[in-house]
Structures are given as structure tokens and as C-alpha cells.
């Protein structure tokens, strides 16, 4: 009888230990899922920064822009194109982009994309902006709405030369 009680007690202890392990493992997985893994260093305690080192401002909500479609040129690991430069569209740039295989002016309602017009602000891929700069087709830039990670692809000096918002 005593041996049976000890076995049952051991089983109970093992079950408790296993449940504790499972609970801790779930907590670890929950933390991984909830953790902010953006490469830009943003997180719950740190706001996105612009190329001037200030808080990142909204680029546009009409049309809604940004990789995350939140109006800001924020970025993260999944944003392979680095949609980080807030630009003001021009006819010349829209034609340039179309000639390079990225038609930004044609609406795609099935994707909720209205098509861009001259004067619209948009979070542009940093490499595309650099390509346009090299081809003398770069659109103007809103520095306060341009994410700091754009500096991986473009120089601050070049962005400043095209800035609309420098005082």
C-alpha cells in the first residue's frame, strides 16, 4: 500500500513538474511572439526615429502609406524593400518608377491601392530613391517623416539636398 501511495505521489510530482515545464515553455513562446523583433531598434519603450534623430512623423494617411499601412515610414525585418523615405510624388518620378517596372500611378482597387498622383506623399523604398537620384529623377523628401534606417541606403547629405522640410 505504501509503495502504491509513493508511486502515485511521484506521478503527481512528475505531472506537476511537467505542467510547470509546459507553462514556462508557453511563456517563453508567448514572449517570442510578443517581442518586438524589428531591426530598427523600435520597441515598446522606444519610438521610431527619423533621419534627424527626432520622433518619426506621419508621412501620409491619404493615401495611406507605409509598409505597415499606418501612415508612417516605419520598417522591420519583414520590410525587405525598406519603405523608409517619405517623398512627394512628381510626374517625372512616377514615369521613372513606371519605366523601372514599378507603376505607382495605376490604381489597384483589389489591393486597396488608389494609385498615386503628383503631390501625394508616399513611403518609398530607399534603394528606389537612390536609383532615382543616380538617374537625376529623385523626388523631394520629407526628412521628419523619413525613417533613420534609410541612411543604410542613402546619405543624409543627399536626402537633405532634396528636403522639403529643412528650416
Biggest sheet, spatial arrangement of strands: 2-1-3
Largest sheet: 3 strands, antiparallel
Count of helical regions: 4
CATH class of the largest domain: Alpha Beta
Count of discrete structural domains: 2
Span from first to last CA? 87 Å
Number of strands: 3
* Rg on CA atoms, Å: 25 Å
Describe this structure in a few short sentences.
The protein is mainly α and 167 residues long. It has helices spanning 2-34, 91-99, 126-134, 156-161, and strands spanning 83-88, 121-125, 140-141. It has 4 helices and 3 strands.
Layout: helices, strands, pairs:
Blueprint: H1 2-34, E1 83-88, H2 91-99, E2 121-125, H3 126-134, E3 140-141, H4 156-161
Antiparallel strand pairs: 1-2, 1-3
Structure overview:
The structure is a single chain. This protein has 167 residues and is mostly helical. The protein folds into two domains: 1-37; 47-167, Phenylalanyl-tRNA Synthetase, Chain B, domain 1, CATH 3.30.56. The chain is built from four helices and three strands. The chain has helices spanning 2-34, 91-99, 126-134, 156-161; strands at 83-88, 121-125, 140-141. Strands 2-1-3 form a three-stranded antiparallel sheet. It is globular and about 35 Å long.
